[in-house]
Amino acid sequence: MPNDKCVKFNCPDCGADLIWRCQSCREAARNYTCSSCNTQGP
Predict the structure, then answer these.
(1) Does residue 16 fall inside a structural domain?
(2) What does the alpha-carbon distance between residue 4 and residue 41 come to, in Å, rounded to a whole number?
(3) Contact assessment for residue 20 and residue 2, using Cβ atoms and an 8 Å cutoff
(4) What residues pair up with 8 in beta bridges, in sequence order?
(5) Which of 2, 13, 15, 32 could hold 6 in an S-S bridge, CB 3.0 to 4.6 Å?
(6) Beta-strand (E) ranges in the chain?
(7) What's the pLDDT tens digit per position in 4-40?
(8) Residue 15 — φ and ψ, nearest 5°?
(9) Cα-flanking dihedrals φ and ψ of residue 34, to 5°?
């Protein structure tokens, strides 16, 4: 569940999806994938 240590942003390539990143995912640099354009990022 998103909390105050999470971040959210639109996909940096297409802007279509809202991506949530929890603190532990950011610290571990786990990848995310945009479901609209398949862009991946840490």
Answers:
(1) yes
(2) 21
(3) yes
(4) 20
(5) 2
(6) 7-10, 18-21, 32-33, 40-41
(7) 788 999 999 999 999 999 888 888 999 999 999 999 9
(8) 75, 0
(9) -75, 130
Q: Which two tokens stand for residue 18?
A: 């809202």
Which pLDDT value is given to residue 1?
Answer: 53
Residue 13 structure tokens: 């390539």
d(CA 12, CA 31): 14
In a domain, 42, yes or no: no
22, 35 Cβ separation under 8 angstroms: no
User: Domain count of the chain?
Assistant: 1
Which amino acid would we find at residue 17? D
